[in-house]
Amino acid sequence: MGCCTPEGYRTVFTARTAERDASRYRRKGLPGTARWLASRLAADGVRDQSVLEVGGGVGGLTVELLRSGAARATNVEITDTYEGPARDLIADFGLEGRVDRIVADFAERPDAASAADIVVLHRVICCHPDGLGLTEAACTHARRSVAITIPRGSWWVRLGFAAMNGWLRLRRIPFAGYVHPPAQIAGLAQSLGFRTEHRERGLLWESIILQRAPAG
Q1: Does residue 161 belong to any structural domain of this protein?
Q2: Which residues contact 86 (CB under 8 A, 6 or more apart)?
Q3: What is the extent of the structural domain holding 93?
Q4: In a 3-state reduction of DSSP, which class is residue 197?
């Protein structure tokens, strides 16, 4: 049983998960790392910018950036289980017509979405075996900024992911989590013309905002 399959993503990221995430956002707003990304991007300026979020789930972070002044947003999601709750959330905030949602594996089909000023990969690289492919696709699509949240490479994080993956294998669920080395992800982005502008490191997660370096 290979990893990861559409069935595996739907088993882990269910319609019930999507409803719960949308309900939590309505009550409490964004959780910690997503809130940090949204606030830093807004402080750098998002007015009239376009946003591409990969693996944004129900799209709370996208909603925040649009409410902060972004013009349009596209969300590329690998599973269709988020689509109903996401559409409801978009309607709740009066954002119909400003958000496009696409179901596709962005690492395998980067051409599914157009380029954008800001590309967001929040807690999604850890859900895909091809972390470098996702990062490269994000950088080639970003005209200005790439915002990333990934697991720290610490031993306790790797141990936690190993335990989770062992449990998934016992349940025969074709899905796994990945701790892609943060330095490798950042290094690839830098080789593609980006520099680290902001960084936030917590106990479990590391968030990085990279800006495209000026030409020449």
Answers
A1: yes
A2: 18, 22, 57, 58, 59, 75, 77, 101
A3: 6-212
A4: strand
pTM value is 0.93
pLDDT per position as a tens digit, 167-205: 999 988 888 999 999 999 999 999 999 999 999 999 999
The full length of the chain comes to 216
Q: Does some domain include residue 42?
A: yes
Question: Residue 158 is which amino acid?
Answer: R
Please give the full DSSP string across 68-114, using - where no structure is assigned: TT--EEEEEESSGGGHHHHHHHHHHTT-TTSEEEEES-TTT-GGGS-
Q: Total domain count for the chain?
A: 1
- H/E stretch holding 210 reads strand 205-212
Query: 1 lies in a domain?
Result: no
End-to-end CA distance of the chain: 48
> Has residue 200 been placed in a domain?
yes
- Cα three-residue angle 158-160-164, rounded to 5 degrees: 115
Alpha carbon distance 68, 188 (integer Å)? 29
Q: Is 13 helix (H, G, I), strand (E, B) or coil?
A: coil
pLDDT tens profile 15-53: 899 999 999 999 999 999 999 999 999 999 999 999 999
Report the C-alpha gap between 66 and 98 in whole angstroms: 8
CATH of the domain at 170: 3.40.50.150
Structure tokens at 136: 């490269």
Please give the angle made by the CA atoms of 90, 33 and 12, to the nearest 5 degrees.
65
